[in-house]
Amino acid sequence: MNQGRIWTVVKPTVGLPLFLGSVAVIAILVHAALLSNTTWFPKYWNGKAAAVTSQVNAG
């Protein structure tokens, strides 16, 4: 681990929860942005089937 000396400045009992908490907050923000800015994502989460947009030619 090339960044091992960071724990001489920040205690692991403080740094790890802050890091993992920030990852969780970023994930929630990404999902919130997807929900508010797309039309397909809320339908996906509600379990609605995607519409078929192309047809296969029988030949």
UniProtKB/TrEMBL annotation:
Transmembrane in keyword set: yes
A Pfam match: LHC
Keywords: Antenna complex, Bacteriochlorophyll, Cell membrane, Chlorophyll, Chromophore, Light-harvesting polypeptide, Magnesium, Membrane, Metal-binding, Transmembrane, Transmembrane helix
GO biological process, alphabetically ordered: photosynthesis, light reaction
Subcellular location: Cell inner membrane
Residue ranges annotated for the Antenna complex alpha/beta subunit domain, each copy included: 4-41
GO-annotated molecular function: bacteriochlorophyll binding; metal ion binding
GO annotations of cellular component type: organelle inner membrane; plasma membrane; plasma membrane light-harvesting complex
Keyword Oxidoreductase among UniProt keywords: no
Membrane topology: Single-pass type II membrane protein
Principal subcellular localisation of the protein: membrane
Record field: transmembrane: 14-35
Free-text function comment from the UniProt entry: Antenna complexes are light-harvesting systems, which transfer the excitation energy to the reaction centers.
Family: Belongs to the antenna complex alpha subunit family.
Self-association state and partner proteins as the record states: The core complex is formed by different alpha and beta chains, binding bacteriochlorophyll molecules, and arranged most probably in tetrameric structures disposed around the reaction center. The non-pigmented gamma chains may constitute additional components.
Protein name: Light-harvesting protein B-800-850 alpha chain
